[in-house]
Specification:
Elements lengths: L1 H20 L7 E5 L3 E5 L7 E3 L12 H5 L4 E2 L15 E5 L6 E5 L2 E2 L21 E3 L6 E5 L3 E5 L7 E3 L12 H5 L4 E2 L15 E5 L5 E5 L2 E2 L21 E3 L5 E6 L3 E6 L6 E3 L12 H5 L21 E5 L5 E5 L2 E2 L21 E3 L3
Antiparallel strand pairs: 1-2, 3-8, 4-6, 5-6, 6-7, 9-10, 11-16, 12-14, 13-14, 14-15, 17-18, 19-23, 20-21, 21-22
Length: 356
């Protein structure tokens, strides 16, 4: 018995020493892949995700949603740690449903995906067109209650354009650049574009030699009076400074289809032959198979380059605001799994991709 007890003690010590000797994994760490680039992981190494319907600093995922997408939680905000090299703002919210403390990144609640079994799995990417890997980026998109989706920098702070600029040229220097600091990078190679961000992110060289980031050619700036993630107090200043709403529709191209329209998240959009201008006749089971493309009702939709046509909206029977193109309501197809899929083309001879 003594020998058995001694052996048991040795085994316990062998396993216990490394646990005390090494630091615990950070709450949020960094991983990556060739396909997706860098992305965030939890202390267990599993991929973390954001849910685009979530408002800033609030989770609307509960019930079965939370079973499928477990929240990354901590016992206390004081326990938060982050791996070196991750820009951005780590925070917490208290969930309304169960009182747990959920971790946020740049104000966006973080989740796991139930079907990710091991570190490196990213099977939750683009699920339902609303779940995306959480990733650090030079420029990314976050929701704003009054302004809709807006562009932010690496730490989640709001970005602006200056209408006195022209694409590719900044005329904000001196005191202007003190009040409106440019978003800069050490090298154009350092620019990382966020998930679900249409348009073109590039750089220009400023007069002082620094490299400023641009969106669709327009130089990007912060505002000195914004103090926290979600602030957008620079909106409309002197009628020349404005937040940037990413594009709702952009042009894609394939050999089979030529030019066709996709939403800002990269997913193909369709029209329904049985609809008419300003009226959707797709509801209930139809809308489950062909989810409407919805937008923030308080923000005018934005068209990408070469889209042509007229963007508008209608209010559906359920109160949601659906995007229209030349008056016709737009939809996704549930069988399209990744951006660029167009498997809904000509389904039933009534569903069609949209030519710009």
């Amino acid at each position: 018995m003594k020998l058995r007890s001694l052996l048991l003690l040795i085994v316990v010590l062998l396993f216990a020493v490394p646990a005390f000797a090494q630091d615990a994994a950070p709450t949020v760490g960094l991983s990556g892949s060739d396909e997706l680039g860098p992305y965030l992981v939890g202390p267990n190494g599993l991929t973390l995700y954001i849910f685009t319907p979530d408002p800033l600093n609030k989770s609307v995922c509960s019930g079965q949603c939370l079973v499928n997408w477990p929240a990354l939680t901590v016992d206390s905000a004081d326990q938060l740690t982050v791996a070196d090299g991750i820009p951005g703002t780590l925070g917490t919210i208290v969930r309304e449903d169960d009182g747990t403390t959920q971790v946020t990144y740049n104000g966006q609640p973080l989740y796991y995906w139930i079907n990710d079994a091991a570190p490196g799995d990213t099977t939750g990417q683009a699920v339902g067109r609303v779940w995306w890997i959480a990733a650090p980026a030079t420029v990314s998109v976050i929701p704003n209650d009054t302004l809709g989706n807006i562009l932010v920098g690496p730490a989640g702070m709001t970005l602006y354009i200056f209408t006195n600029d022209t694409p590719g040229v900044s005329v904000c220097s001196g005191d202007c650049a003190v009040a409106w600091p440019p978003l800069t990078v050490a090298s154009a190679d350092d620019v990382v574009v966020g998930q679900v961000l249409p348009g073109e992110v590039g750089t220009i060289t400023r007069d002082d030699g620094s490299i400023q980031v641009t969106y669709n050619g327009w130089p990007l700036y912060y505002w000195k009076d914004d103090k926290a993630v979600g602030d957008a107090t620079g909106q409309g200043v002197r009628d020349v400074w404005y937040v940037i709403n990413p594009e709702n529709l952009v042009v894609n191209n394939s050999e089979a289809l030529g030019d066709y329209l996709v939403a800002g998240n990269g997913f193909t959009v369709y029209t329904f032959k049985n609809d008419e201008a300003g009226v959707s006749n797709c509801a209930d089971d139809c809308a489950k198979n062909w989810p409407p493309v919805t937008v923030n009702p308080s923000v005018a939709p934005v068209a990408g380059a070469n889209v042509g046509g007229e963007l508008g909206t209608i209010t559906r029977d359920d109160g949601k605001t659906q995007l229209t193109y030349n008056g016709l309501p737009l939809y996704y197809f549930k069988e399209d799994k990744v951006p660029g899929d167009a498997t809904g083309q000509n389904v039933g001879d009534v569903w069609f991709v949209v030519a710009p």
